[in-house]
Structures are given as C-alpha cells and as structure tokens.
Amino acid sequence: xxxxxxxxxxxxxxxxxxxxxxxxxxxxxxxxxxxxxxxxxxxxxxxxxxxxxxxxxxxxxxxxxxxxxxxxxxxxxxxxxxxxxxxxxxxxxxxxxxxxxxxxxxxxxxxxxxxxxxxxxxxxxxxxxxxxxxxxxxxxxxxxxxxxxxxxxxxxxxxxxxxxxxxxxxxxxxxxxxxxxxxxxxxxxxxxxxxxxxxxxxxxxxxxxxxxxxxxxxxxxxxxxxxxxxxxxxxxxxxxxxxxxxxxxxxxxxxxxxxxxxxxxxxxxxxxxxxxxxxxxxxxxxxxxxxxxxxxxxxxxxxxxxxxxxxxxxxxxxxxxxxxxxxxxxxxxxxxxxxxxxxxxxxxxxxxxxx
Amino acid sequence: xxxxxxxxxxxxxxxxxxxxxxxxxxxxxxxxxxxxxxxxxxxxxxxxxxxxxxxxxxxxxxxxxxxxxxxxxxxxxxxxxxxxxxxxxxxxxxxxxxxxxxxxxxxxxxxxxxxxxxxxxxxxxxxxxxxxxxxxxxxxxxxxxxxxxxxxxxxxxxxxxxxxxxxxxxxxxxxxxxxxxxxxxxxxxxxxxxxxxxxxxxxxxxxxxxxxxxxxxxxxxxxxxxxxxxxxxxxxxxxxxxxxxxxxxxxxxxxxxxxxxxxxxxxxxxxxxxxxxxxxxxxxxxxxxxxxxxxxxxxxxxxxxxxxxxxxxxxxxxxxxxxxxxxxxxxxxxxxxxxxxxxxxxxxxxxxxxx
Lengths: 355, 355
Ligand code: HEM
Ligand code: HEM
Hints:
Two copies of one chain form a homodimer.
Chain A: H1 3-20, H2 25-42, H3 49-61, E1 76-80, H4 86-101, E2 109-113, E3 118-120, E4 130-133, E5 136-139, H5 144-152, E6 167-171, E7 177-179, E8 188-190, E9 204-206, E10 210-211, E11 215-218, E12 221-223, E13 228-229, E14 232-233, H6 234-241, H7 251-258, H8 269-287, E15 292-293, H9 295-311, H10 320-323, E16 347-349
Parallel strand pairs in A: 1-2, 14-15
Antiparallel strand pairs in A: 2-13, 3-6, 4-5, 6-7, 8-9, 10-13, 11-12, 11-16
Helix pairs in contact in A: 1-2, 1-3, 6-8, 7-8
C-alpha cells in the first residue's frame, strides 16, 4: 500500500470511528492532519488506544460469520503493543487467558500486539494435540499439522487424547518459541449427560475459544497478532469438534451409550445422538459455571443485534452459511432470510500459516 | 427472443442432448437445419419426444437446489402437448397423479403441456388449504393466498386442517377452471411415532410432492405448465411443512407429547422434538409403503451423483443453502464443501404468479 492509499484507509476508518464515538469535527480534522504527517514521515501510523479499542470492536461487529455480535461493544481490549520481549509477550498471552476465563464467567477479550512484531502459530491459544499413530489419530485430528511442527521444535506431549498444546510464537521473524501453558490457566469441562452415562466417551473440552491466527485490520494497519475470544456456542463443541467424523467423531459412541438402533439411516440415530451430545455439552458447561450459549438463544441475540444495527442505521452484513447453526438450523430466524456477505473494514482476516 | 437468439439456444441444447444420446453428427446436422427452417418460418420450433424427454431430464440434473438428482435419468416423461381441451388437461393431471403415486411406490414423473396453452395455478397438485379465521389460521398457512383465490372462484372447503385444494388452471389465458381432486387419487399418510403416542397431533401429509408452478426451459422454449415430482425427503415434511412456526408449527405439541422440559432453550427441546417428528415421518411413510428418503441416505445418493457426473466429465452445480438438509446438516458431506451455483440450461425456473 502506498502512502496515499494508507491515508485513504486511515481517514475512512477515522471518519466512521469518530462519528460513532461522537467526537467533534475539529478533533477529527486535527487527528487527520496528525496521521497524514505521520504517514508521510514514517510510512505508517499508530492508533491511539481509543481508536484501537473502537477499531477492534467494529471489526467484531463486521465479522460476517459471527452469530455473537450483539455484544460487540462490550469487549475488553488490551493494548499489548509495548510488549517487546519474549517474557512480555508470554505474560500478555497468559494474562489474556486469565482475564478472559475469569473463573468461568467468560469475558470477550482481545489482546493486540505491535504490527509486525509477533506472530502466533497456534490456531487457538488452547487446543488439543493430534498424533498420528499406527492405530489412527489420537487427539484432535485438526491439530495434526501443528502438533508435528511443535514436535519438530522439540516439544513432547504425553500422548493422551487431550494434551493441551504449548504456545508457539515468533518475535521479529526470529526462531519460534515454545512455551507450555500452566495447567491452572486452562479451564476445562468434562462432558456429562443429565440422564445417560457418558463417562465411557471420555469427552471433555476447554472453556475458552481464543482465535490466535487471524489478522486484525484497522484503518489500513495490519495487526498480525491479536488473539480474541468470546464464549462458546454449544454446537461448536457438540456438533463439530466432538461430532465431525474428521474430528473426535463421537456420534457412534454416543449412540451406543444410548442403546439406539444404528442399523439404518432412517432411525435417525445420528440426529438423536447429536442432540443428546449437544444437550450434554450445554448441561456440563452450565453445571461447571462456564459461560456458554445454546444456538436458539444465540440466534435470538443475533436478531436483537440486527434490530440494534437497524436503529443505528448500519447495514448488517453476514455469511449465511456460517451464521446458521449446524443443529436444527431451520428453527432459527437466520435460516429464513438472506444476508449480504459484503466484507467491511475494520475486520478479522485469515492469513497464511507461518509454518 | 429474436429468431437468431432462439436458434442459438436451440442449437446449444441440441449439441449437448445429441452428444449425450450418442446420435451421429449427420443426424444432428439434419435436425439443426430443420429447426432453423422451422424458426425462420414460424418464429418457434417444436421438440421431438426424444428431445423433450432428454431436456426434461437434463433440467432435473441441472436443478441446483435438488439433492435427489442421482435419479435424473430415470424420470418418466409424459408428453401432453396435444392436450387441448379442459377435459384432456384434467385427465392428464389426474393421470400424472395416478402414475406418479403408483400405490405408494412413487415414480419420478413429469407431464409437459404445449407452451403457452396451459397455466396451472396450484403450487403443487396436492396441497392443503389454509383459512384465515378469527382464531388464527386453520390448515396450511402457506396456502392462504391461493385458498382465498380459489374461494373467490366459488370453491368451498370443509374447513379442516387438511382440506385438499382443487386443481386450478387456465387454458389460452381464459377463465380459470376449478376441479376437485377425486379422493381416491390423493394418497395420504397419518404420522405416527414408533414409541410416542402422536395421535393428538392430528399430523398427516400427502404422499407425492408435485411441483406445478415452475417453468421448464429447454433450448429456448418455455414450458409454463410442466408439473414434476419425485418422492419426499423426510425433512421436507418433518422439519419444514409440519415444523416451521409459519407452517403447521407442531414442535411445541410434539414436546408436550414427549413430556420434555420446555422451560429453557438450553434443554434443546426444539431439537429433540424435531428429531422425533422426523423419525415419525420416516416411520409412517415406510409403514404405509410410501417411498421416502431420509436426509443421510439422500446425501449419500447425492455423493454418488457427484461421482457419476465427474465420470461423465460434467461439472456439478449446486445451491449449498438448499442442498444441506435442515436437520443435522453437518453430518452430511454436503455441508463440508462448496458448490458453484451456476444456472445451466435446460432448467426449471420460478415464474410470476398468475393471480
Ligand atoms: C461472545 C460470544 C461469541 C459467540 C457466542 C460467538 C459465536 C461464533 C460462532 C458460533 C462462530 C462460528 C464458528 C465456527 O463455525 O467455526 C463465530 C465465528 C467468528 N466470530 Fe464469533 N462469537 C463470539 C465472540 C466473538 C468475538 C469476541 C470476536 C472477535 C472480536 C468474534 C469474531 C468471530 C470471527 C472473526 C468468526 C469467524 C472465524 C473464522 O472465520 O474461522 N466472535 N462466532
Ligand atoms: C426423486 C426424488 C427427489 C428427491 C428426494 C428430491 C429432493 C429435493 C429436495 C429435498 C429439495 C429441496 C426442497 C425444499 O427445501 O423446499 C428439492 C428441490 C428441487 N428439486 Fe428435487 N427431489 C426429487 C426429485 C426431483 C425431480 C423429479 C425434479 C424435476 C424433474 C426435481 C427438481 C427440483 C427442483 C427444481 C427443486 C427446487 C424447487 C424450488 O426452487 O422450490 N426434484 N428436491
């Protein structure tokens, strides 16, 4: 991006952010002059904390795939741009884990590092390893690539189906650092069912999904390390992580515990097992005092978000294929209307894997 | 469409159809000359039976929203282009109902009328009336508009929740004709559950979905009346017609029969009720000897269709948002891959309502 393009991106963000923050036009003009000078002198510019906070929140609001956007304005935004040593970055990540987990009362949180300084290799800060063995994959098949990388870097896991992977990040494109997560930082929930005995499944999951491999773009500035989290919607665990055939693939085991007839597709055994697995996830998180939302409530909250946005005279963009829940989608209003999948800025984007 | 455009459309259809039918190049050339002459003389042209059959089948194969396309080549194509009186059209429609129903062993069937001659007002040949009453809608809310029209035309229904609507069609844009369906032509299935007592729901549905308001386009020719049917996929009945809140809305009743806790979304009572309603639909149709397919089997059949098409070196186009089933979509392979929603010809299209 050349200077003028960056100035355009910066100004267009400023215009919207300052309008939303109800800043007066003089302040906006002053700040624009400042940013123009900074870009012309250094080729880039630096956001104030207030801009960073508003930008990160707007980026969530603009996340077309996210059903949780009602709460976009309540996120805790942690400015970690001054973290410049391995220790400082590690501390910032552990601090995020702690603040976000909050003993189960999960707080939507983002920690933003200086552009270009840090790159986190983990897909999420907490995730289970996946090992290729002679008897098939042990652990989370989705983590096999990353686990192989981490092993190459010298890490050894115990080899259970739920080994928490270490933090891996680079600083200034230097050698990757591998740092084990202290056990007491990783809240986890054993999945039990209110009626059936699910203990033979050995199903558990961690409390907080902290996406750590996406790029946050605000006003033309790319934050390549900006881990963020909300709380889980139950189906993410019960209908995907634990159920997909290329993940923990638990539906046959659930059906067997439930003693249902799996001799034909038409008994809908998969559907029955799926619903009970999802009930168990919601039940267990609630029992453990860990925030979680079911897909019906989440859809209702999203409807409220749509109403709020209409009031604010902003268009709601959305990606229907991600917004519909993977369990009983037609029971939510989302299924029955179209969404325009226009990508607005600020936003969160995929970036190339660093390994 | 001017003559040259029509010739282009005709030829492009001919090229593909004759290639698939393994006709020799000379036959193709001869037929092209014939069609060019016919268009230049009359402004339109007429398909041979073979072309009509192949075109209707290709149109099914190209139906991006349809998960049932594995069977595209097995459809019975009935040429009713010579039907030119009210009696002949009525007989053709009743014949379709009979041949397609086939005592429960449903045959995919299409009946094609002369372009411009007939326009069927029904959305499907068999459908339940919907009446607006002081206590809310009785019957199928989706039929309220059409039912009002039919009442304006002098028809009177009994007023139950399952009154079969009459056939309504125009000929040569003349006055609409209203013709009651003989009861013995309309196979219906009472929905019962293998374990729970569903009798208080009064749920039933008809055997054969015969879409009668779409336009079939083949080689530039529009067939505005070409009712077609397959058999049902269970979710169409159990997860939409009987479940949607703006249709028969049975989930609360199902939950009450099942005696499940509906005090909170997180009990997933809607999801549990939905699965059991869908089980009941599949169970009842099977018990009644009426063809039906569950969504898991349908997805597998669609996968086979994709493989067949790859072998035939044809691209499979699809509309993901319609192809995924509305129950447990992520348990099917369809959920996990993208489809290109390119509209090929021949195809079935929506057309403006005639009322
Ligand atoms: C507060 C509770 C939240 C809930 C219940 C929630 C729910 C969801 C769900 C169900 C998905 C789809 C995930 C999938 O199918 O893999 C999603 C995606 C997403 N959400 Fe949220 N979310 C929350 C908070 C957040 C926050 C705090 C942010 C960012 C600040 C965010 C940004 C996103 C993004 C960028 C995606 C797409 C991820 C991707 O492309 O892989 N969400 N969210
Ligand atoms: C043989 C069994 C068949 C099955 C199981 C099947 C299944 C389905 C399903 C589940 C849908 C989605 C319906 C909805 O969500 O409302 C659909 C749509 C469709 N199918 Fe099929 N189908 C079959 C036969 C046929 C035939 C024979 C044709 C045409 C010759 C056809 C053409 C279409 C079209 C055009 C649509 C889209 C309808 C619309 O836009 O409203 N299908 N099919």
